[in-house]
Write a structure and sequence with these properties.
This protein is α+β, with helices and mostly antiparallel strands. It has a single domain, classed as Ribosomal protein L7/L12, C-terminal domain/Adaptor protein ClpS (Ribosomal Protein L30, Chain: A, 2-Layer Sandwich). The protein contains four helices and three strands. The protein is elongated, with a radius of gyration of 21 Å. The model has no long low-confidence stretch (mean pLDDT 92). Bound molecules: L-tyrosinamide. L-tyrosinamide binds next to strand 1, helix 2 and helix 3.
Amino acid sequence: MNQKTLEKPRTKTKPKTQRPPLWKVILLNDDYTPREFVVLVLKAIFRMNESHAFKVMMTAHQRGACVIAVYTRDVAETKAKEATEMGRAKGFPLYFTTEKEE
Ligand code: TYC
């Protein structure tokens, strides 16, 4: 009998680390907000670089919406609110929403 056969089966289960559920921040397209302004908001609030922000903006522009990032609920809601507010302050209907990730 080799060493492996003599080993007792492992019965201890590793305790699973609880991870908080994640929330998606979704950018919605509209017909009025200038493209450059959307890019500016994505850079300011979501810390994206120019090329990533541009790609995300174009995806929302062409498909109607784009998931831009996932965070814990609080962070997702705060960022969505701040980003939406940046548009509102300039009179644009730019809108960011959140959705729980399944
Ligand atoms: N569709 C807008 C335009 O043509 C640009 C835009 C892109 C607005 C993405 C919102 O989430 C958006 N000026």
